[in-house]
Amino acid sequence: MSIQGIFYTGVSGLMAQQVGMQVTGENIANVNTPGYSAETPVFETGITVDAGGLPVGSGVQTPQITRVYNDYLQTLLKNENSNNGTYTAANNYMQLVQPVFNELAGSGLGTSLSNFFNAFQNLALDPTGTAERESVLSQAGLLTDNFHQISTYLTNTQSQADASVSAITTQASSDLKSIAQLNQAISLAEAASPTGSQPNELLDQRELTVRNLAQLADISYSAQPDGTLTITLNGSGTTLVSGSQYATMYANTTGSANGMNDVWVTAVGNPPPATSGGAPDTDVTAAITTDGLGQLGGTLKFRDTTAQGFITNLNDLASYVVNSVNTVQTAGYGLTGNTNVNFFTPANTTAANISVSIANPDDIAAATNNPTAAGNGTGDNGNALALGALLTQNLAAATPYGTTSIKGFYNSLVADVGVQAQNASSGLTASNNMLTQLNTQRESQSGVSEDQELANMLNYQKAFQGSAKVISTATTMYDTILGLIS
Amino acid sequence: MRVTNSMQAIQIANNLQQGESRLNTYAQEVSTGKQVTQPSDNPLAAEQILALQGTLTQNTQYATNISMGTSWLSLQDSALSTANNVVTNAQQLATQLSTGTFSATDRLNAVSQVQQIQQELISLGNTQVGNQYIFGGTVTNAPPYDASGNYGGNDQSISVQVDGSTSVAINNSGDQIFGNTSTGTGLMQTLTGFITALQTNNIPGIQNALAGLNTAADTLHSAQAAVGAKENLLTSVTTMNNTLNTNLQQVISNYQDVDIAQASSNLAQAQTAFQAALQSTAMVEQLSLVNFIS
């Protein structure tokens, strides 16, 4: 036990409080940094020394700075981020699709269909009327235009989803690279630290990147003994990051069944091998689509199932219109006795190519019997009535929406769009709420409380003053002893 | 629970966002007056609304069909009643001239009068609605009768759809009512025979004509009754159509329109709640140890 000992004890106090202040400063500075976890210095008593037979402490030491990390919460957040990504993608696209089917505003394909078939009813009131015949043709033109517009819009939205597949994979690849780089830095830092203290900021960053990546694609992570994180893609089990090596995710149309982007993953490497658009790279499209999670899953699902479904149904509707109108039209007679004249081009039965083939309004078959034959007349409106009734008449074959009419089928299609839009938006709301809850929990455990930091700061300040006082008092004591000598 | 700044920030942002979203929903309901403005608001209601609106459109079309049917029938009604008067004149003439008090000269003088009657009936047979001849069967674009009373129309009927399941034939073929000179049937033939009998001073011929005229009058009466019955049918269908329209609009409104009192009160409530949220946020955010450390 010596007076110098008191100096050292005082100095250890000064240094410890400085570390404390440093950590508090860091915490306050990062109060708004996303993913930052509040840090706490760990103070321990110094080793005990023998002072004239008494065991006396030698001050304080700070072996490490810890942070609060809850791995279970991290897993939940990762999963919910994937879920959220799915609904974000679905909701974005459904918000784009819904307006073209918004019949409630009082215009759209449904109105065009009604107008077209009502034009036949009006023709039935005056089968010889030129205006009535012209009106059927002009309504038919509006109807086909409407089909084309909606079809183009849906196809464009589908292409937009396809294009974003490429953008998402690029973003995911950049996240994979960041994780691999952080892996490397973390394993080096941990190996270098004599006390085994952790590089908290790097860990925070890596966890944040994993959460961001989960928003894009459904992934799993597992911690390795060397401090690195191995990332695999759920569904296919493909390794995306292993230690400092990482894979590239990319979109490629080569060999794709529908001419749209497939998602490919290269082998891991640092840097990864160049993308080849084929073997040895892995095509993970099917696995991601089946899994359906993350923005990538949601986007692929919209592109290949939802949008494709709407396009198929719209094409069905077009073919119902073409076939049922042609069947009745070809059986009847036009004003000048022409029969077996198609109204729509029979070969064009999709929403994209539906077209009116009849050119002469007199060929619209309003009559059941040939008006030019003896004993018949041009006032015959039997076939016009039959044409006008097609809108609400049940179709002969069952449709994907059950046995229904052209009008009923279209209404079901609109309701189907509504259901999908509603599902996406309520799913997104629920997922957002869940994410908020989890984030709140994470922030509650790991976040920075400014008030707490300020209180700590006052603590450190007082303790620092105390330690400084100890040193100045020790100095006085030293002076006193030196004064004895003179 | 440990409260941290970022946690507070998340919660405040979330709460304000939710309050704003509720406010927006109610404001939209109040300003549009509708609770279903896009299919996803309520897909089931949306499908119902569309189906009902479709029925409403159909009904408007039926109303057009009915009014066209009504105009055909009422014109037939008046043509038939005029024809009835004309035939009554012919009957009187035949009754008088079949008695012995009139001379052959008188009968010869009456020929032009009967010819006049025949022409009048021919012109009634050629009655038009717009540019359509209504007594020619489906031959609507040419007069069914020529000057001699030869019928050029047919016996086919013209129907209009008046509701989802009913179509009504709105025409009568002229030869069933006015007859046809060329086939030697009906009123036309009777009048031709009448004229010949007058010219030849053939009293039994005139008596034959009278019998024919009586039959023709019966035909006219029953045709008129049938037309009247159809007019009644159309009137009642119109009433039904109107009632249905009112009901449909009511049902659509139930699905689509908001209860404005409810919506306004919701809006007011959301507004108050949002204001409170803003106020409490501002208050809590001011509290910090920073303010108390000198």
Topology:
The complex is a heterodimer of chains A (486) and B (294).
Chain A: H1 3-29, E1 39-45, E2 48-51, E3 54-57, E4 60-67, H2 71-97, H3 109-125, H4 130-192, H5 200-216, E5 219-223, E6 229-233, E7 239-242, E8 245-246, E9 249-252, E10 262-265, E11 282-283, H6 285-291, H7 294-331, H8 382-389, H9 406-446, H10 450-485
Antiparallel strand pairs in A: 1-4, 2-3, 5-6, 6-7, 7-8, 9-10, 10-11
Chain B: H1 5-32, H2 43-97, H3 104-125, E1 128-129, E2 132-133, E3 159-161, E4 167-169, H4 174-177, H5 186-199, H6 203-256, H7 260-286
Antiparallel strand pairs in B: 1-2, 3-4
Helix pairs in contact in B: 1-7, 2-3, 2-6, 3-5, 5-6
Describe this protein with a few key phrases.
heterodimer; A: 486 residues; alpha+beta; 4-stranded antiparallel β-sheet; 10 helices; B: mainly alpha; two-stranded antiparallel ribbon; 4 strands; rod-shaped
Notes on the structure:
The complex is a heterodimer of chains A (486) and B (294). With 486 residues, chain A is of the alpha+beta class. Chain A has helices at residues 3-29, 71-97, 109-125, 130-192, 200-216, 285-291, 294-331, 382-389, 406-446, 450-485, and strands spanning 39-45, 48-51, 54-57, 60-67, 219-223, 229-233, 239-242, 245-246, 249-252, 262-265, 282-283. Chain A has ten helices and eleven strands. In chain A, strand 6 and strand 7 form a beta hairpin. The longest helix of chain A has 63 residues, at 130-192. Chain B has 294 residues and is mainly alpha-helical. Helix content of chain B is 69%, strand content 3%. Chain B has helices spanning 5-32, 43-97, 104-125, 174-177, 186-199, 203-256, 260-286, and strands at 128-129, 132-133, 159-161, 167-169. At the A-B interface, helix 3, helix 8, helix 9 and helix 10 of A face helix 1, helix 2, strand 2 and strand 3 of B.
